[in-house]
Amino acid sequence: MFDTVKAIAGFTRHASVSADPEAREGMEGAVKYLSALLRDNTGCEVEVVQTAGHPVVLGRRRGKPEWPHIVIYGHYDVQPPDPLDEWTSEPFEPVVRDGVMYGRGTSDDKGPMMVHIAALANVLERRPDLPLRITFMIEGEEEIGSPSLAAVMKARTDSLRGDFLLMSDTTSVGIDDESITTGLRGMSALEVRLKGPGQDLHSGFHGGSVMNPIRALAALCASLHDADGRVNIPGFYDDVVPPADWEREELARLNRDPEDYRKLLGVPELCPPPDYDVFESRCFGPTLEFNGITGGYQGPGSKTIIPARASVKISCRLVPDQKADRILELVEKTLRERCPRGVTMEIERQHGGDPYVVLPPHKSGEAIGTPKAVAFKAADEAIREVFGSAPHYLREGGSVPVLSDIRRILGMDALMLAVALPDCNMHSPNENMDLLMIERCTKVSERILEAVAGTRG
Amino acid sequence: MFDTVKAIAGFTRHASVSADPEAREGMEGAVKYLSALLRDNTGCEVEVVQTAGHPVVLGRRRGKPEWPHIVIYGHYDVQPPDPLDEWTSEPFEPVVRDGVMYGRGTSDDKGPMMVHIAALANVLERRPDLPLRITFMIEGEEEIGSPSLAAVMKARTDSLRGDFLLMSDTTSVGIDDESITTGLRGMSALEVRLKGPGQDLHSGFHGGSVMNPIRALAALCASLHDADGRVNIPGFYDDVVPPADWEREELARLNRDPEDYRKLLGVPELCPPPDYDVFESRCFGPTLEFNGITGGYQGPGSKTIIPARASVKISCRLVPDQKADRILELVEKTLRERCPRGVTMEIERQHGGDPYVVLPPHKSGEAIGTPKAVAFKAADEAIREVFGSAPHYLREGGSVPVLSDIRRILGMDALMLAVALPDCNMHSPNENMDLLMIERCTKVSERILEAVAGTRG
């Protein structure tokens, strides 16, 4: 049997922070580790495809053309680990406490991705001649918006086009409540930099005669929401399509307690915008969030300056049928129109992606008997058996922007088996992965692989 | 002759950043350096008075009780040197280029303070029996609001009370245009910290359901000015007294070009608030400035989080008859009233001080013949001679909050001989001191000391 826990731990030790130019060693280590893992345990032929950014690892189990072909997506890069002082153990030295592994990337996406590697290894151990073609397509730039994967897919459309995409980079409801994710929000992100004086000024000598870039930035940021919390950018909501009734009902059936959720987040009050309840706002509503702001003196005590500049990182989460490029244009246009006097503005557009929805065949009325429909059916049945209850079909608020690219370029929809749990601290300190979820989801993945293999010509 | 340039350079080498708890070595070094300098060159009896914070250095030239007594104020601490990468030479390795010395503290206040040490040394060389009592009172906490000096003054009222205070910690008009400073703005400062979620959250999973602390902080900050740039805090302007007509005229006579000033600062546009022109707003008008803001992800690229917290450093410059404590109360009250929902607020009050005005005896109709009046007259005459034109009597926008304490506790007014120049980059990278100003002002200070010595009983 494939030792999944050991494999995740070893993978996590590589600090593969794609956003950090200093993390070269971690990125390279992760690529080597993953390549060896695929080669040694699944017999895949591994190719490391160089790109303008971080490489894509392709792992191929070839087979007869009439065999079904599943493409398994994952990403070996992780979010930056800071703030470091809030971790109770080292982010890149995974430890297991009470059946939960802690470490950066354990739940996003090194643990969940490992489920499918383990599943294939286990199935092949039982049945080395499995009539199934598999392509692992593991990128290293998901956390920075997958700027290179599209080019790789375009250059290899034929070999990368499978019957459907299998992936686990989304979040379930609970350890006994597995979900199949039916949608993800899109994203538009940018950084705004305001420049005032040529250098920091003494706030006594010059205070009163110049615009303070922090003041200008605060005014600009404050203008982006109205008093009720709606995004205050003309046209922002124009293309928003409300979810289907069954989706709202499926979400409501979870019957979650807002007070429990409030406590989990540690906020004094929940603040959903109008038109959505607190759970709906997380997956059916679009947002504009400030991810970081900086300007002026950051050290201890005080320093009475007017800073030369101030900047803010902004990202929007998008829902159907908002388009990432269009929203970026609207946000940028609004920012430029509202730029206060006395400062100059520079905007850097960052990664983005359109929102993504994939309805399960039994909801969309799609043809049965296709590898994709068989996979969804197998997943549904296996989840009932392994978890003891039917899966939830839910959209979630996160983004995997590359999914829209995959659909557009390779024409594949995704079966998104959720592996992470809501308290896994993805993108936060003390990221963790419940190893029971890994075990259960590996069984589900095995059933999917076996069922799809059974659909061959 | 006292080697002033060498003395300033040696003093500057000690990185005495009072705001930085790590700068212990620099603070201690500056105290030792200064003590030795006073002892060796002026024969002063030196006492290092320990306080709850950084020590006060007292240097005493004792004499007969009927001799006039001048207290000379200065501070040996400096502003933090960052942003370091904008310095063209090391902040604590002074270099002289074209008659200008560059280094942190050269103009605030190590160079200007040295003028009076040099003047006393030079005068004593010519006339060792000078009938004048001198007390140097040099603190190490001016840049953090002089929290300890008041207690030292209260404990030694009798020995520290002189006929007047002589000090140089203000800015002149130009190398040929010396000014005597007639007022400084007061200050109220605080730091506001907003706390939202217990830790940074994934902006996809939770974005929409919680208040983003950066958004809350931006709204809060944006509310503190109205669209015209006035401070939008109820009661803020209640106690503001406009300057005397002669003060406005004296300022206007400088006939400065706003366009030159705009270029000097490197801003796209000057933005004075209503009711003041661009130069008046710097000294006659109160301000509220943001000195630093921080929250969320600050690193390269993007990190899609909702940060757990965000904070801002705020300082107000005050004019007569605003009171620092009252303004602090108003600002804090307003911030608490406007605290957005979904976050909690913590406010830390920082150093402050009331505004300070000291009119020259010939404007205030004060008695002539007192040591203070003699000093002002001698300064006026010496400036005409050394600089070739009459001094300007101007208020400036900076703050030396301890001056109000000195007046209240010791009952002394200050003669503020401006030594720094407008382009000295005080509090900014590449702080510098024109050595010709040092030379000229030393001559003026010598004349003041000699004239006052002549007023003895």
List the helices and strands and how they pair.
Two copies of one chain form a homodimer.
Chain A: H1 4-12, H2 24-42, E1 45-49, E2 56-61, E3 69-75, E4 95-97, E5 100-102, H3 106-126, E6 133-139, H4 149-155, H5 157-160, E7 164-167, E8 179-184, E9 186-195, E10 201-202, H6 213-222, H7 245-252, H8 258-265, H9 280-283, E11 287-296, E12 305-306, E13 309-318, H10 324-338, E14 344-353, E15 356-357, H11 361-364, H12 371-387, E16 392-396, H13 402-410, E17 414-417, E18 432-434, H14 435-453
Parallel strand pairs in A: 3-6, 3-7, 7-17, 8-16
Antiparallel strand pairs in A: 1-2, 2-6, 4-5, 5-18, 8-15, 8-17, 9-13, 9-14, 10-12, 11-13
Helix pairs in contact in A: 1-2, 1-3, 3-14, 4-13, 12-14
Identify the notable features of this structure and list them briefly.
homodimer; 457 residues; alpha+beta; Aminopeptidase; Alpha-Beta Plaits; 2 domains; 9-stranded mixed beta sheet; 4-stranded antiparallel beta sheet; 14 helices; 18 strands
Largest interface: A-B, 102 and 103 residues
Task: Give the mean pLDDT of chain A.
Answer: 95
How much helical structure, as a percent, in the residues of chain A?
Answer: 25-40%
What would you call the shape of chain A?
globular
The CATH class of the largest domain in chain A = Alpha Beta
Oligomer category? homodimer
Q: How many E strands of chain A?
A: 18
Biggest beta sheet attributes of chain A:
9 strands, mixed
CATH topology of the largest domain in chain A: Aminopeptidase
CATH architecture of the largest domain in chain A: 3-Layer(aba) Sandwich
**What is the assigned CATH homologous superfamily of the largest domain in chain A?**
Zn peptidases
Give the uncertain stretches of chain A in residue-range form.
Answer: none
Count of individual helical segments of chain A: 14
Distance between the termini of chain A: 30 Å
